[in-house]
Amino acid sequence: MIVALLVALASLGIWLRTSSLVQVDDVTVTGVEARQAAEIRDVLTIAGLDMSTLAVDEQALRDAVSAYPIVRALRTSTDFPHGLRISVDVYEPVAALQHGNTLTAVAFNGTLLRGTVAKGLPVVGAKRRPPAGRVEDAETLRAIEVVSTAPTALRRRVERVFRSTRGLSATVQDGPKLYFGGGRRLRAKWAAAAQVLADAGTQGTSYVDVRIPERPVAGGFLPANVIDSPSTLG
Question: What's the CATH number where 112 sits?
Answer without folding.
Answer: 3.40.50
